[in-house]
Amino acid sequence: MADTIALITGGNRGLGRSAALHLARTGIDILLTYRNGADEAAEVVAAIRNEGRRATALRLDTEEVASFPDFAAAVGGSLNEVWGRSTFDVLINNAGFGVHSAFEDTTEDDFDRQVAVHLKGPFFLTQALLPRLADGGRILNVSTGLTRFTFPGYSAYASAKGGVEVLTRYLARELGPRGIAVNTVAPGAVETDFGGGAVRDNPDLNGMIAASTAMGRVGLPDDIGGGIASLVTGSNHWMTGQRIELSGGQNL
Questions:
Q1: Beta strand pairing status for 55-59 and 29-34?
Q2: Which of 14, 102, 242, 251 is 20 to 30 A from 48 in CA distance terms?
Q3: Tell me: domain 5-246, CATH 3.40.50.720, correct?
Q4: pLDDT digits 0-9 by tens, 218-248
C-alpha cells in the first residue's frame, strides 16, 4: 500500500509546523510549503525524517496566484522524485497571517491582502492541485474561531475566513463524486507568533481569553496540530462539508 502524503501550506512554523509533526508521528509523509522561512522549513523536514517519514519542502506565496501552475508542476516533480508517484492524499490549506486593525482604520490594502491570502489563494491553489489530489483524498481548510465569536480588530481577517467556510461546503459538494472529503478546522486563540504574538506574550490578554474558555487556558500549537492530525486520519471519511472548532470552548 502506498504511503499517505499530506501537503501542508505554511508548514514551516506555527500551527502548520505542529500539524506536520503530528501527522508524521501518525505515519504520514509530508510535503510542506514556506514563503520566507527556508531554514525553518528545513528544520521541520529534518524533524519529520527523524520520525522515520519522508518529507520535502517547496516555496509558495499564496498571494501569487499566477505562480500556482508552476507550483503544481513542482509538486508533481517532488512526488515523482521522493515518492515515485504522481498524486498526494491530503491537502491542508493553512498558510496565512493576520491583520489587527479597528474596522475604521482597516485599509483597502489590508483587506485585499487578507482576501488574497485566506480566500483567493486557497480557492485557486486547490483548483491548481486537483489533478494531483488522489480520489478518496481529503482537504482541510483552516479558518478561525473568529467567524463564530467576535474580537475587535479582526473584521477583515474573519470576513475572509468566513468565505473559506462557505468555499469548504461548495468543495465538499463538487468533489464528493471523487470521494474527496472537505472540511474546515477553526482554531480559537493560540499561543503562537500570529498577530505579533499578542496572545502568547501579553499576560493580560492571555488571562482574559483563558477566563472565557471552558478549558480554562489559551490553546497551544499542539492542541491544534493534534486536532488536525485526528481529522485527516482514521475512519471519519464520511464527514464532509463540516466546520470543526478547536478552541477549548472559547466564548461558549
A1: parallel
A2: 242
A3: yes
A4: 999 999 999 999 998 877 889 999 999 999 9
